[in-house]
């Protein structure tokens, strides 16, 4: 697996961001189409539409356990291309789906393939960067990645105006082809030859065990999963809160969604500028404590206004909350990956699987509690952020000893940054 010349920094960030953008587009582009899909397939219960997200996230979470270890054995490029082919098959099936069940199967297939983009984007970044440099790249990637949620609902709405929610899946198909050609032409293999691992159950199990027993890795994995649960809670309920039930914004829903996404993008840019000076631990802890305080504010608004606060108050609180939330996730991811760079594929798989499953399950459970008010959202934010803070307190107790990489070398002491 010969490593070729790497693309310039800006192009590298753009390619990786596009890979991650494919994941975001697969979720956010469909939010305005929920009512159209529900009407086409005659779905009586509006809450069932959230299965469009959870079916994708279920396949996405499970397959992450496969792509990373395989990429540690045969390289990143081949595995990514295989995953994108599977994603393409899911997009095609969705375009021609004739019932809701088939659409859910197609979404699960998309998730299976899309998981390769998620796992390998993180592994490739870790192949090239470490520490605060990795956190900076993660933040810049997330900033560009968040541009997709800003425009995705608007483009989804535009496709609905053109005539069909199926056009949204055609746009996903177009984007995956762009990723295939750009990555194929410009990105060389990044797996370090000395880190190549024979694909076997024992190797995969030992890699997962190492991540699970390395305190900075497992603690930040759990913290990121809880933060992801907050994000999935919002994504699952955003359409009902803004468009149909509470604020009834109708066609203005994409604008409200975009404004909150812009707050998240701004936070990612700020994180990329501040992380070299303040560090990942400081920023992630500040962001999570601030988010917990904003969850209290949201719950207070819900109680004062019977679950339906004025749009201005709710929008401002959500914008600040999601700004703070976006200071946590890139740093949690970097802190989790930092001690396990020599098994980046396996580590990214395990971390991605755990965080995605946590996000999907927690978001679905809280989403099912939606009752036409923001109370479930606020309670979900408060509960998950409280658990996250407890995990962070546990992670800061002492310095973790990281097992030595396979093949020799002494164990190292990692303070988490």
Task: Kindly describe this structure.
The chain has helices at residues 9-28, 34-41, 51-74, 76-95, 100-128, 131-162, 166-186, 201-213, 215-244, 253-278, 280-304, 311-325, 329-337, 344-368, 375-395; strands spanning 400-402, 412-414. Helices cover 76% and strands 1% of the residues. The longest helix has 32 residues, at 131-162. It is mostly helical and 417 residues long. The protein has a single domain, classed as Up-down Bundle (Growth Hormone, Chain: A). The chain is built from 15 helices and two strands.
Provide a brief overview of the structure:
With 417 residues, the protein is mainly α. 76% of the residues lie in helices and 1% in strands.
Strand order of the largest sheet: 1-2
Overall CATH class: Mainly Alpha
Helix content class: over 70%
In one word, what is the shape? globular
Radius of gyration: 20 Å
Q: What is the chain-wise order of helices and strands?
A: HHHHHHHHHHHHHHHEE
Structural class: mainly alpha
Specify the number of helices: 15
Oligomer: single chain
Second-tier CATH architecture? Up-down Bundle
Largest sheet: 2 strands, antiparallel
Average pLDDT level: 86
Unreliable parts: 399-416
Strand tally: 2
CATH homologous superfamily grouping? MFS general substrate transporter like domains
The end-to-end distance, rounded to whole angstroms, is: 30 Å
| Overall tally of structural domains | 1
Main location: membrane
Family: Belongs to the major facilitator superfamily. Bcr/CmlA family.
Transmembrane segments: 12-31, 51-67, 79-98, 104-125, 137-161, 167-185, 218-237, 249-270, 282-305, 311-332, 344-367, 373-394
Domain Major facilitator superfamily (MFS) profile: 12-397
């Amino acid at each position: 697996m010969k490593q070729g010349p790497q693309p310039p920094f800006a192009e590298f960030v753009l390619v990786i961001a596009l890979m991650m953008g494919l994941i975001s587009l697969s979720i956010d582009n469909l939010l305005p189409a929920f009512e159209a899909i529900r009407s086409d397939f005659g779905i009586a219960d509006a809450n069932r539409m959230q299965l469009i997200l959870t079916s994708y996230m279920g396949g996405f979470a499970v397959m992450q356990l496969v792509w990373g270890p395989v990429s540690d054995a045969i390289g990143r490029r081949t595995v990514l291309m295989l995953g994108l082919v599977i994603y393409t098959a899911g997009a095609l099936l969705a375009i021609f789906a004739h019932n809701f069940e088939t659409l859910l199967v197609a979404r699960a297939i998309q998730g299976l393939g899309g998981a390769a983009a998620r796992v390998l984007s993180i592994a490739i970044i870790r192949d090239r960067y470490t520490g605060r440099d990795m956190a900076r790249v993660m933040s810049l990637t997330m900033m560009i990645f968040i541009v997709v949620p800003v425009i995705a609902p608007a483009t989804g709405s535009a496709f609905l105006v053109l005539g069909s929610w199926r056009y949204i899946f055609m746009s996903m198909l177009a984007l995956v082809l762009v990723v295939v050609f750009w990555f194929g032409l410009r990105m060389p293999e990044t797996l370090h030859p000395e880190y190549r691992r024979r694909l076997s159950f024992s190797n995969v199990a030992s890699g997962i065990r190492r991540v699970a027993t390395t305190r900075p890795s497992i603690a930040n994995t759990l913290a990121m999963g809880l933060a992801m649960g907050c994000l999935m809670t919002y994504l699952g309920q955003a359409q009902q809160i803004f468009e149909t039930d509470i604020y009834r914004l109708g066609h203005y829903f994409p604008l409200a969604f975009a404004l909150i996404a812009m707050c998240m993008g701004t936070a990612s840019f700020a994180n990329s500028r501040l992380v070299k000076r303040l560090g990942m631990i400081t920023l992630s802890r500040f962001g999570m404590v601030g988010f917990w305080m904003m969850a209290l504010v949201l719950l207070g608004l819900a109680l004062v206004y019977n679950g339906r606060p004025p749009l201005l108050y709710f929008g401002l609180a959500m914008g600040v909350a999601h700004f703070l939330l976006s200071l946590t996730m890139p740093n949690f991811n970097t802190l989790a990956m930092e001690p396990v760079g020599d098994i980046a594929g396996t580590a990214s798989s395990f971390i991605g699987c755990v965080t995605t499953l946590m996000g999907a399950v927690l978001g679905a459970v809280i989403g099912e509690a939606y009752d036409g008010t923001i109370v479930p959202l606020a309670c979900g934010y408060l509960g998950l952020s409280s658990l996250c803070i407890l995990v962070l307190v546990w992670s800061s107790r002492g310095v973790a000893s990281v097992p030595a990489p396979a093949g020799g070398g002494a164990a190292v002491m990692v303070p988490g940054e």
